[in-house]
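Hi F.,

I've been meaning to write this up properly since the lab meeting, where we talked about keeping a consistent format for the predictions we share between groups. The idea is simple: the sequence comes first, exactly as it goes in, then the structure tokens exactly as they come out, then a line or two of notes. No screenshots and no reformatting. I'm using this chain as the first example so we have something concrete to point to.
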Amino acid sequence: MSRAPGEYSGLTIKQAELLSFLRERDAAGHTPSVQEMTESLNLSSKSGTHRLLVSLEEKGYIRRT
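Output, unedited:
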């Protein structure tokens, strides 16, 4: 499993990509759908995106409401 460098050093590459995507969208004032996240990461299923979201939340990078 590859790890991301720098600011995202505790995350996998996909987790870092998703976090970066979420931060970009948040800065633009847009909350993306799970489908948009899945497409941005070139994943084949929403369940993979959900697992990434859960891991980011468990690590304290995001808070879902």
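Notes:
The mean pLDDT is 92.
The first helix runs from residue 13 to 27.

If this format works for you, I'll send the rest the same way.

G.
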